[in-house]
Amino acid sequence: MYNYKRIILGLVYRDKGELWLVKVSIVGATGYTGAELVRFLARHPEVELVALTSQSYVGESFVDVYPSLGKYTDLLCAEQDIPKLAAESDVIFTALPHGLSMEVVAEAARAGKKVIDLGADFRLDDAGVYEEWYKVRHTNPELLPEAVYGLPEINREKIRRARIIGNPGCYPTSVTLGLAPLLKSGLIKTDTIIIDSKSGVSGAGRTLNLGAHYAECNENIKAYNIGTHRHLPEIEQELGKLAGGRLTVSFTPHLTPMTRGILSTIYASLDRPLSQEEATALYREFYGNEPFVRVLSAEQLPQTKWVAGSNYCDVAVTVDPRTYRVVVTSAIDNLVKGASGQAIQNMNIMCGLPEKTGLDYPGLYP
Q1: What would the pLDDT profile of 65-74 be if each residue is shown by its tens digit?
Q2: Is 170 a catalytic residue?
Q3: How far is C-alpha 279 from the geometric centre of its chain's CA atoms?
Q4: I need a labelling partner for 85 at 20 to 30 A (CA). Which of 96, 297, 329, 341 fits?
């Protein structure tokens, strides 16, 4: 059996008869996205988890923080010692709030490690735009030009050569995958895009938050941050690249009383006639070889429950001939394809591993 040697000069070499695993550390492992990384990586056949850091639980067993992962890891929560992590690791994931990953990523990259940041610090190309929307000074803007936006379906070849990955946000993942075929084909009027997205409460993270309290969100749905959500510049940046020019969209997120999932419903006016059959064929051709995008029919629209716990994005396109609009629906699990699963997909590509390794699981249903 062939197994993977450690990463050398950005490549993964194989060696017969010896077991060489990709050594991985997670900075900020006790948040929801960090715990999802552990859930998948603990079962990844080509990974060895070597360190899980935490600010709140140093010295405690990770399983005491997340009992659901009992028998999957015996690691203790460690302090954030980046030189030590770099010495032990081939790949470092940072699962930290925005503003806290910049120095960690810079130090790990200087040590020659591959870094995948699940926060927002390396998603935006322009440090000024980042500072405007996140109200934090970017301390390492010189690294932004080499950071690759980690959406595999769009940037696979760049990811393969990358040292730093800015893992996409959850809303932008659902929206970009939903619109990519139409934008690349020039079939819609880019000044007519309206995005309505609904997210589960886990998107707010594990930190105490009044809006995420049971009594506040149960049996309730609400719009929030209309036109001001921090994912908006990321959405416009990536959609603009697909369209070949800058664009502006209307984006309204909603909080829904469910734990996991995002459903995005996206509207745009057609630039030229398009039949339902042509639209569906366009999507099936665009995503025909993608392991984690499932194109559904207009009669079987995506549901969050069908992707819960999985790394899949379900997408469907519907042509409304009466209004001359197209309506796209896409569903992902915000913690998996919208965060940790996509990060592992990026790691697999960066390390030369089969892309589906450690992620090839269906969702939980019902």
Answers
A1: 999 999 999 9
A2: yes
A3: 26
A4: 341
